[in-house]
Amino acid sequence: MTERLDGPQVSSADTADEPSTGPAETPRTQRRIGPSPAVAIAFLLPAAVLLGIWVVYPIVYSIFRSLFDSAGTGFVGLGNYATIFTDSSMLTTIRNNLIWVVVGPIVVTTLGLIFAVLTERIRWSTAFKLIVFMPMAVSLMAAGVIFRLVYEQDPAKGVANAVLTTVHDTFSSSQGYPEARAREGDQSPVAADGGAVVTKQPAQAGQPVLIPIVGVKPNVMPGNAQTAKAPAGGDGVSGTVWFDFTPGGGGKNGEIDASEKGLPGMTVEAVQNGQVAATATTATDGSFRFEGLPAGSYVVRLPQSNFQAAYSGLSWLGPTLITPAIIGAFVWVWAGFAMVLIAAGLAAIPRDALEAARIDGATEWQVFRKITVPLLSPVLLVVFVTMIINTLKVFDLVFIIAPASVQPQANVIALEMWRVAFGGGNNQGLGSALAVFLLILVLPFMIMNIRRFRRDES
């Protein structure tokens, strides 16, 4: 007997193709991808503990300690922070940091951009990059020692002043003889006139003018000085400037003796009616001659500049130039770092945009200013912000390069923090306040860099 079914007939094959409508899988039944949270915590815990010990705890304790006095027993509130903005030496420190923040990053970023562009146009770019980047292999302390020697005042030791004196002497042949003076006495043919030396009698053509000088120190006597001799007579005015001193004694004052040396490099002027008519420079034997001098009588004068110390360069380690000098050392260290980062960004620029601009008639300067620099702006900003952070934290270069006598003029916040807390000040309350103040200055730039990195990754 067959059972009758009402409604449409559904075959077993159709029902087999339909998806299961049973209950969904619970989260417990799903398979986990990756390690469990317990394993991740186990791996992160040591790093988190070290981070708390080395970073979080010092920050919290510094904030707490900055609210107390030097002994740590008396609560002063914000008194240490008020000292930062009222003490004159602290204000000098803040001013120096402002100079660092403004000058250092701009110069480093600009030089890095110039070097990166140049490396694309020279054949020996690899060697150039190696030379510019090499200072990064040197610690800041070693760089400070190097530039302390570079900035030595003595041109025989300091490279900077050696270069300056070489350039100066190329265009000015005057030789300084400090503390030298004219030989005094009624029989002397010359006399002192202020700081200058002048002849007592007018010079006549054909009659040599003798100018004896004494008081020349052995250390300033030029090595090329030769035995003095009077020039041969002639139509013009000529003469000799010499060191009127005979080693071992003897000789006659006011006369050229056989063992006496001329004074080379001295500036000699022929003066008539109060006006300088001609100028000459003494030779290695001290002789001089005025060429093309009109007929007449003249007073021969050695100007005061001959008796001043010879040009020895700039006082790089003095209170005026100490901060720019240290910034120069900072630029030397970090310019290679900026060049490498900018060169990497420059290599990523699509060449099609550059070539299209050149085809449209843009000059190289227009391509650089309107295409290259805008496309490099993210990299330039990263380099600039990184340099700001480095300038705010600078310590080693200032501590090593600046002598103790000018460190107050070259001081920065990081160095002042160390000096106040550990370098003899023993005021850890004020030192902690300076540390917190420095942290507040650095934080915005660190956050800016982190946001930039995240934006680039997204």
Can you tell me about this structure?
The radius of gyration is 39 Å and the shape is elongated. It has helices at residues 12-17, 37-65, 79-84, 88-119, 125-133, 140-150, 159-171, 322-347, 351-359, 364-392, 396-401, 407-410, 413-421, 428-457, and strands at 181-182, 190-193, 196-199, 209-214, 238-243, 267-272, 275-281, 287-289, 299-302. Among the domains are: 87-154 and 317-426, Orthogonal Bundle (MetI-like fold); 181-307, no CATH class. Helix content is 48%, strand content 9%. A five-stranded antiparallel β-sheet has the order 2-3-9-6-7, with no helix packed on it. It has a four-stranded mixed β-sheet with strand order 1-4-5-8, with no helix packed on it. α13 runs antiparallel to α14 (428-457). By secondary structure, it is an alpha+beta fold. The two termini are 73 Å apart.
| Low-confidence residue ranges | 1-8, 12-16
| Order of helix and strand elements from N to C terminus | HHHHHHHEEEEEEEEEHHHHHHH
Oligomer: single chain
Distance between the termini: 73 Å
Q: What is the architecture of the domain at 87-154 and 317-426 at the second tier of CATH?
A: Orthogonal Bundle
Number of strands: 9
* Inertia-based shape: elongated
